[in-house]
Write a structure and sequence with these properties.
Elements: E1 8-14, H1 19-27, E2 35-42, H2 49-55, E3 60-62, H3 71-84, E4 89-92, H4 101-106, E5 111-115, H5 127-133, E6 138-145, E7 155-162, H6 169-192
This protein binds glycinamide ribonucleotide.
């Protein structure tokens, strides 16, 4: 996607803790990483990830979805912030708002998401509880391109972890998150690094 030597200007969108955002930002501190995190945006002012971004020296902004009349107005404000920072690609990292086809279309091919399941299994919420209820022996996470249909875009990379006896949704989520923190920075690098 990027020209040789060019480091893509990446924004990371969050709603909460921001541990995936921090993993990407720390990976991007390496000079040969093909992206720089130039902006973190949260739709929630109370997201702990905002302080993590500030501590990393990354501009961290809030676009509070509740302050807008509807999804389109929220997304227009979000898009304006991305453009103000000359953002070239977007990584959703625990961003818990569904995006409209209009916004997704504006960022088509330039926006990725991490989802805490082995897609196509368990799109949507409560992925770990659903994997446990199904008796799955394996769980994991998926990085995929964002398309208008929720959690359904082309898969870029997956990481698998075992489901262990006695797991709860919380213990399984923790094991999957550990895998996510390695998976997401690597998947973004592979996605953005020019082929060849
Ligand atoms: C991660 O497990 C991510 O896969 C999930 O939220 C968590 C965010 O953690 N994303 C979704 O559920 C998206 N539908 P983090 O804020 O610490 O990175």
């Amino acid at each position: 996607m990027a020209e040789a030597g060019h480091r893509t200007r990446l924004a990371v969108l969050i709603s909460g803790r921001g541990s995936n955002m921090e993993a990407i930002a720390r990976a991007a501190e390496a000079p040969d990483y093909p992206a720089r995190v130039v902006l973190v945006v949260s739709n929630r002012a109370d997201a702990p990830g905002l302080a993590r971004a500030a501590a990393l020296g990354i501009p961290a902004e809030v676009v509070p979805h509740r302050a807008f009349a509807g999804r389109e107005a929220f997304e227009a404000a979000l898009d304006a912030r991305l453009r103000a920072h000359d953002v070239e690609a977007v990584a959703l990292a625990g961003f818990m708002r569904v995006l409209t086809p209009g916004f997704v279309g504006r960022w088509e091919g330039r926006m990725v998401n991490i989802h805490p399941s082995l897609l196509p299994l368990y799109p949507g919420l409560d992925t770990h509880a659903r994997a446990l209820a199904a008796g799955d022996r394996e769980a994991g996470a998926t990085v995929h391109l964002v398309t208008p249909e929720l959690d359904s875009g082309p898969i870029l990379a997956q990481a698998r972890v075992p489901v262990l006896a006695g797991d709860t949704a919380e213990t399984l989520a923790g094991r999957v998150l550990d895998a996510e923190l390695a998976l997401y920075p690597q998947a973004i690098a592979d996605w953005l690094r020019p082929a060849g």
